Amino acid sequence: MDLITMDDLTNDESISLLEDAMKLMPVARGLTHLPLLEGKVLGNLFFENSTRTRLSFETAMKRLGGEVLNLSEVGSSVKKGETLYDTMQMIEGYADIAVIRHPRQGAAQYAADAVEIPILNAGDGAGNHPTQTLLDLFTIRQGHGTIEGLRVVLVGDLRYGRTVHSLSRALSRFGASLTLVSPESLMMPQEIVRDLKSDGCDVSETSDLISTLPSADVVYMTRIQRERFPDEAEYEKVAGIYTLNSQDLTSSHSNMMIMHPLPRVNEIHASIDSTSHAWYFKQAFNGVPTRMALLCRSLGVQIPEVIN
Ligand code: NCD
After folding, report:
1. Does domain 130-284 have CATH number 3.40.50.1370?
2. Which of 3, 70, 68, 72 is nearest to 42 (CA)?
């Protein structure tokens, strides 16, 4: 089974993955040894920079007893001009499942169509990032116990940010209300807003972050994605536009969560790190159990009812 966008999972399937991830927590932390994926090989294909996504997939696979092949542009034949189609043919012979990140929107679907092994989209240009969404949903449930009825504020580069493209759809399907905060030039693509509304989602758009803070249950900050701007001068106009520091949070609920897929540039001041609002490092760790659950499901491996 491939995972290219969140539309590949029903709500029930997503919840069941999140429940499996919860069971796998002690394995993710390295407290319990559970080699469910022994003998399996994951191909980690990163054609774009990554720290958390690549490393948490690698940790997830290794903690379950599996092996990992890492392809990067440096040191592979990608630099020699090999096509993605050809690379995928090779990977299919070497690995049982592959994770792909690529600068081109649609590349993960293209890769999935080229081979039979399961393909997991770890970010395709400004398209989608569904495995990030799974760990984001997991983190929100950790903090609030539910998703339904929450007011979630998505902030920053909503135009090019693949994390928020995937997350907004999933949140609306789970019954959250959304406030989209961006400058005019980085608004959420209209087709996504239209889909959110046709899902029945309560969604509003503004450029004023501070006014959204008193009623927010979750504030999801994102980086302005310099590498996606066709024009550097356009980037300079909006760089650093949204920043949060601890003084901005005085009117917020005590259990308001601040999240960020990371890396942060200057969106969240370090003064927030020691407050109970800071969820972004826990969020990054949650990539391990959620990706473990996803790897097991994609490889058809059942997770035991009780793990100890
Ligand atoms: C994000 C990405 O690559 O889309 N990072 C991540 O996977 N945690 C966000 C970003 O790069 O800003």
Report:
1. yes
2. 68
- Does position 74 have pLDDT exceeding 70, yes or no? no
What was the pLDDT predicted at 73? 67
pLDDT digits (tens, 9 = 90+) for 4-50: 999 999 999 999 999 999 999 999 999 999 999 999 999 999 999 99
129 is catalytic: yes
Pocket of ligand 1 from Cβ distances under 6 Å: 52-53, 123, 129, 132, 162-163, 223, 225, 261-262
CA of 305 to the centre of ligand 1 (A): 33
If you measure from the C-alpha of residue 163 to the centroid of ligand 1, how many angstroms do you get, rounded to a whole number?
7
The answer to whether the beta carbons of residues 161 and 229 sit under 8 Å apart is no
Distances (CA, A) of 224 to 94, 150, 218: 36, 25, 19
Q: What is the pLDDT of residues 186-239, one digit of tens each?
A: 999 999 999 999 999 999 999 999 999 999 999 999 999 999 999 999 999 999
Q: Atom 1 of ligand 1 has which residue's CA nearest to it?
A: 261
Q: Is 101 a catalytic residue?
A: yes
278 contacts 258 by C-beta, under 8 angstroms: yes
Report the amino acid identity of residue 304: P
Can 146 be counted among the known catalytic residues?
no
CB 80, CB 55: distance < 8 Å: no
How do the domains of the chain map onto residue ranges?
6-128+287-298, 130-284
Catalytic residue among 52, 253, 264, 269: 52
Instruction: From 82, 38, 88, 85, select the one nearest 63 (Cα to Cα).
Output: 38
pTM listed for this prediction: 0.97
Distance (angstroms) between ligand 1 centre and the Cα of 234 equals 20
CATH class, domain 6-128+287-298, is alpha beta
For the chain, give the percent of residues with pLDDT over 70. Answer: 99
Atom of ligand 1 nearest to the CA of 129: 4
